[in-house]
Amino acid sequence: MKKLFISALLFVSGYSTHAQSDALQAAVNKLDQAKTVSDYTQLEKTFTGAGGSPAWLSPYYAALCNAKIGFLLQDDGDKIEPYSERGEQQAKQALALLDSTRQRRELAEVYTVLSMIYRTKVFINPMTYGRKYGMLSQQMLDKAMALEPQNPRALYVAAWVKYYTPRMWGGDKEKAKQLAGESLAKLANPGTDVYPHWGKAEDQLLLSKIK
Amino acid sequence: MKTGFTFLLLTAITAGAQNKPDTTIKSKRALSEVVISAGTFEASDKAKGASLTPIDAVTVAGSNADITQALRSLPGAQQIGEQSGLFVRGGTGDETRQFIDGTLLKTPNYPAVPGIPQYARINPFLFKGILFSSGGYSALYGGAMSSALIMESTDLPEKTSASFSVFPANLGAGFQHLAQNNKSSYGANLNYSNQSVYNSIVPQKPDYYAGPAYADGNFNFRIRTGKTGILKLYSNWTYSDVGMRNPDIDSSLLNYTYRVRGWNSYNNISFRSLLAHNWKVESGAAYSSNETNTAGSLTDWKNTPVPGKTGFRQIRSDFAQARIVFSHFFPKGQALRIGGEHFYTHDKGHSNDSALTLTDQLSALFAEGDIYLAPNLAAKAGIRAEYASVLHKAVVAPRLSMAYRLPDGSQFNIAYGVFYQEPLNDWLYLQRNLTFSSATHYVLNYTKKAHNRFFRAEAYYKKYSELVKTTPDVNNNGHGYAQGIEFFWRDKKSIKNLDYWITYTYLDTKRNDLNNPYTLRPAYASSHTTTVAIKKFFQDISTSVNVSWAFAAGRPYYNIKDGSITDQGTTRTYNIANLHVAYLCSFFKHWKWKDFSGFAMGVNNIFGTQQIFGYQYSANGSNKQPVALPATRGYFIGVFMSFGIDRTDDFLNNNL
């Protein structure tokens, strides 16, 4: 009886993991189409409860949604903070679920999103938040690059920073173009599974501005 | 012209925001929180969107590194060009008080010179938070009938650094040292300003025979104690000397010679810390000592003294204050604050042959609660009791403000309060049988912040009672009122890298005080005032341009003689535009001590419009001279540098 119960439990938990992975996959598919603040707000909720495997993905994607919302709201400094705060927590949660010695590629993905989250904190008010979070954002990006130098999403964020930073503080539009191009080249066939594969549309948008 | 070189430095540093560390404690405020804001402009280092930061507030072009001049670009303040101080909503400059970390800054400016505003003694960049209340302020503060300027000094600096500035009339040097463990810091600054060379190039209307010279030295020490405590010490020493000659108003051949010298020391120590069980303590003590010597006499064309109008006055004023406030925090952002403070004032001096002395002990107790009534409704209720020994009187002042948040995020605020102020020492020297003057404020306010834009409208009514009258003798029979409506609009979004704000102030005020024969509109009150502040940073050429413009309808002027008005009128409108340009660069890019440097230039009153603030009359009333700017335009140009050790890694190691 006991054995049966355990196997039933195993079956149920196995089933539910499977269902959660389906839910995660469905949400990721939706994320590939998301465009507006309300799309991302909805998806952030979905990812928060999605669970699935591997475990770091659901907080990772929830954080990514909050980062995206922050970028979309960048001209509305009064609204960004709650998204940034939640995104920071989620990104740190994802980091905690990763093995810091073996999962270098995964860590690079999370640090890239954390870098974006800190960037959204700068948007709250560059004058007051820029000093601290601009630097933190750069540090997180550097970590991502060190873990996986050719990560296309880290390259995209690097391109974004080069494009929007004033020249006297290290901005360089040519360099931005080059980085976005490199990133795009690596995203020719990004795939559609649950592993992070976003970035193509972002690169294309940035490149269209540089021309 | 004295300049705010630090302004430029900060522009440089903030423009380079991306690369610099900060140890600001992060804000935990929820977005939907109701923040009580009637009557106040808060400039905070935690400002979001289009809310003001201290740097926004003090970098308005033409403010000469004086916080009160900078705040004239906000609604509620009058454009007073002939004296120092902040004239708010029908109040005199003396009705605005400045507080640093809770303690009163009694003499914020160098000693007054007739017709010419004097510089501020304290660098406005010392502050990480500036709360400018134009009415209805908290029960934690008192002694100001119109306005409280509540300033919070910075905590530890971000890094060890040194700075220099060279402007022809103004030299400055300073450093800040941050300990390796980021727990303590100390720093010192020296500034010396002598306008005589500048004045030989740009002629001034008064003939300055001494200075104008200003020297200041200041020292600070800050240390973190325990996990949440910080102890701060600030000491500021200043000296000034201004001697000038003007044609005598009563005679065509003589000059009136006037000289004022001042020595001042202001010392402030403050401590704040969280305690167990959701309590917090904030305490402060200040000691200041001020001596002002003024001398006036008539001189002939050879500068030989001539009898008549000779006056001499010397006053030494010692002032001490101690204060403590305990706060207890409750859920939902509610709080209770209780505290007390004591002010000691001792003046001793003489005016010509009469001795002047005054000793006053003023004690105050206060309590204030932040009360949460509903998710979109909050109230702040307070009470303040004061007793002044020189008046032998006690008063109790109630304060109340409420905020109601609308579903779209905008807010309605109301405020009410009674504000007591002792008569100025100048009247207390002559007459002790006086009482507190008072003003009762009623404020209605609406604010909306969204999309990096900020709109604020405020209407108020203010009733003055027991104002000092000087006729027939010094008494408290004066009274008055002020009412008005004010608008503020700031937009950081519409044009990229351009930040501007526009204000409009309508003021209707009359008072029967001092020697007014009847109720009059005061000579410092303009009915309509508009200001514009524009800041743009041109990234590609690393240049920042600040422009400010102020327009004020004419002010009334009167010649009051023997209880009647012999002449009166309205001055021409006030119209002034100021420009500051700074080019930012780095002279030693690859050195360990990478510098933030630049060149700066500025012109005040670019268009050279004639400004008339009022008129001065001869004793017989037949001669009338305008009170105007000492020079049509003011200029400055110079270079500034700041060096800092990059401590990015320390910072990261301690924060992650």
From TrEMBL, chain A:
Keyword Signal appears in the UniProt entry: yes
Signal peptide: 1-19
Top-level taxon: Bacteria
Keywords: Signal
Designated name of the protein: Tetratricopeptide repeat-containing protein
Organism annotation: Chitinophaga arvensicola
Automatic annotation (TrEMBL), chain B:
Domain TonB-dependent receptor plug: 64-143
Signal peptide: 1-17
Highest taxon of source: Bacteria
Keywords: Receptor, Signal
Family matches, as SUPFAM superfamilies: Porins
InterPro entries, alphabetized: Plug_dom (IPR012910), Plug_dom_sf (IPR037066)
Keyword Signal annotated: yes
Protein name in the entry: TonB-dependent Receptor Plug Domain
Organism: Chitinophaga arvensicola
Lineage of origin: Bacteria, Pseudomonadati, Bacteroidota, Chitinophagia, Chitinophagales
